[in-house]
Amino acid sequence: ILTGTSGDFLKPDGDRLDYVERTGVATLIKEELAKGMRPIKCKKPYYDINIVTLDQELDLMIINCYLPCNSRNKESGDRFRDAMNELNNIISEAREKSPKRGLKILAMGDLNYCILGHKNDKKRTNLLRHTLEHIGGTYHVPDIPTHRSRAWENSDSYLDGIITEDGIKLDKLEILDEE
User: Fold this and answer.
1) How would you classify the pairing of strands 147-148 and 156-157?
2) What would the pLDDT profile of 95-133 be if each residue is shown by its tens digit?
3) Computed from CA positions of residues 151, 27, 80, 59, in that sequence, does the dihedral angle turn out positive or negative?
């Protein structure tokens, strides 16, 4: 099952995605998990969020992210802050709606936060740290950089990652496209 926020869609032949450069994300979920899937509406297209039922006692909130980039100006910082605040609010609301069921959080994608390149950006770092604490999780990045700047020669970044809530075991993090 394909869910998403960008407005792109599968064509009837099923082989090609109609693609126009837009902000948004798409998530592929196995059909068995998608049967009881509950999509979560977001204000902005930074997230594709779905809750899937794993068993009678446990749900998993899958958050696919494409967070605003750091353009080193106030506007991009405000967009990142607003996106992180929206994410924290969505998680809080979901937890309040299902206090008796277990709900684990898994957030992944282009978080546009590099543990090396943004470490001096205190606002962005504090926003991510607050979200990690809110989730009760760990931030994982792959072994190899996931972004190579076209503007800055020899500038590699770790902008993509996964946040797993405590209790979720991450066996492997593999980059599918190393280009």
Assistant:
1) antiparallel
2) 998 777 899 999 998 888 877 776 778 898 899 999 999
3) negative
